[in-house]
Amino acid sequence: MKRIVFVGAGSMAEAIIAGIVNEDVIAAKDVYVTNKSDEERLLFLQEKYGVSIVSADRRELNEANLIILATKPKDIHQAMADIIHHLNDRAAVLSVIAGVSISTIESGLGKRPIARSMPNTSATIGKSATGVTMNQSVSLEMKNSILGLLSAIGIVKEVSEDELHLVTALSGSGPAYIYYLVEALEEAAIARGLASVTARELIIQTLDGAASMLKMTGEEPHVLRKNVTSPGGTTEAGLHALSTNSFKETIASCIYKAENRSRELGALSDKIST
Fold this sequence. Notes:
The chain is an alpha/beta fold. Helix content is 55%, strand content 13%. The protein folds into two domains: 4-159, Rossmann fold; 174-257, ProC C-terminal domain-like fold (Orthogonal Bundle). The chain is elongated and about 70 Å long. It is found in: Cytoplasm.
């Protein structure tokens, strides 16, 4: 991978840039960024990560091996129209935009190697959980390059394009659910009189420990849960409250709503491209 251009410079683009630059996957000098109008944002990324800003004549787009689409879904069609005449025929495209289908990207940028992925913002620290799918135009060499790039920012799993909607709901949006859980735990602890700093540290370590237990022991979640739950004890009382308040049903609804929204965004993009 000789040169990458990010089209879009939001939080997801920054997370991936941070991951690949910090892991030395690609030299910062070979990473370029452009966006619709926010020059201040581009300068921030340049100063923080050492990447370059696409020049006014956009020659970097023509020289790029890989274009990473990282705009908001509503901006994708204008973004593709802005870059199509600057791309070389060999350039592959990797989209990290929720819901936007490969067929929509093909309509905007022509038949070329195209991959869709859904990392999450933990890419910033090399801990993303990413799903990816590719069209048949992606060569084995390019496939390995894309998988290598995504592996540098965390784990990566190949899935079907249809499954990517669920991956978006599960791991793409997943960090926000975890942060929301932390907010709830912290607020409850503070309300009962625990100092906020103490609550935060205990919660973070509890999450880290639980995740490590799942990863290192290989045990099923329900086994680990039962190991912590003594009959008539405190954990059982807390779990009963979660069950009574439809905890699992709420989580299922959360995933369904997010997956459905990904499909809606995809349908909207497909409609605009036809």
